[in-house]
Design goal:
By secondary structure, the protein is α+β, with helices and mostly antiparallel strands. The chain folds into 2 domains: 140 residues, 2,3-Dihydroxybiphenyl 1,2-Dioxygenase, domain 1 (Roll), CATH 3.10.180.10; 119 residues, 2,3-Dihydroxybiphenyl 1,2-Dioxygenase, domain 1 (Roll), CATH 3.10.180.10. The strands form 3 sheets. The chain has an 8-stranded mixed beta sheet. The radius of gyration is 18 Å and the shape is globular.
């Protein structure tokens, strides 16, 4: 798909990414992940199945208009088994929503972006391609075009609330060694501009919004370690933070107390040990 054009003789490149499609989570046990994300939080299970080519059992759970993809390796040579062995279970990749993955990957190749998949392939969530870790200083990005709305987004016109009041993915945190460089690549590779930046203490923050979900990029003001980037946090918007906190405490999850959030509203975090390795937060703007 050819995107871009000219206005008043000036060339422009509009965003080629529609939104965050999903956040990939590598887990040791799909059942343990279901206990929290499906049962305690009430996120609807959209799809489940085996992916022999990747050596995993996989599940897709809806969080508003985006998804959590939960992946349990079942073979020792699975790339997700390697990830767990090296980094522990938890956040694995950030998948960006495309409506023309073949055209987008061709554009990435033309730009010289480092790619793991130089041609898109069929995967569990759609037709997809991984960028190489080098593309975002170690954080793993994927571009995916869903197979079709009937399979992937049956209620695209609305927001699906989990039984616990989870509305959507509010933001995903990328921790990188160089915030400016990472934001420049998002602009160059995907046409996603930086909406806002700030500094706090020794760290820089940048906020990008390709669609409904915010990508929060965090890094040191100077002296970042090369290739140390990772997907570092996940925040879900909820409608009743006090009720959710009490419910999770009653179920034995290691959750703190709600407190004011930088973004406004109130936020509370679950320790990663109780969320299959995911630094998980809930934010309530009401």
């Amino acid at each position: 798909m050819l995107r871009g054009g000219a206005r008043g003789g000036v060339c422009y490149n509009p965003p080629v990414i529609l939104d965050v499609h999903h956040v990939g989570i590598a887990v040791r046990s799909l059942e343990a992940a279901y206990a929290l994300y499906r049962d305690a939080l009430g996120l609807p299970l959209v799809k489940e199945g085996a992916v022999p080519a990747r050596g995993v059992r996989a599940a897709l759970l809806a969080a508003g208009r985006s998804y959590l993809e939960v992946l349990e390796p079942v073979t020792t040579n699975s790339p997700f088994a390697k990830h767990i062995a090296e980094r522990g279970e938890g956040l694995h990749h950030l998948a960006l929503w495309s409506d023309d993955v073949d055209g987008d990957v061709e554009r990435l190749r033309d730009l010289g972006a480092p790619l793991t998949d130089h041609e898109p392939r069929d995967g569990f969530t759609g037709r997809l391609a991984y960028l190489a870790p080098l593309a975002c200083d170690g954080a793993l990005l994927e571009v995916v075009q869903p197979f079709g709305p009937a399979q992937d987004r049956p209620e695209a016109g609305g927001v699906r609330l989990g039984r616990s009041g989870v509305k959507r993915i509010d933001h995903v945190v990328l921790r990188v060694p160089d915030v400016g460089a990472a934001c420049g690549r998002f602009q160059s590779y995907f046409g996603v501009p930086t909406k806002r930046t700030m500094e706090r203490g020794t760290h820089q923050f940048a906020f990008l919004r390709p669609g409904d979900v915010v990508i929060e990029v965090i890094g040191p003001r100077e002296g970042g370690e090369p290739d140390s980037g990772r997907i570092a946090g996940l925040a879900l918007e909820v409608t009743d933070i006090d009720g959710l906190t009490a419910s999770l405490k009653a179920k034995g999850y290691p959750i703190g107390e709600p407190h004011p959030a930088l973004q406004g509203g109130r936020i509370v975090s679950v320790h990663h040990s109780g969320a299959c390795g995911v630094p998980l937060a809930f934010i309530d703007f009401s």
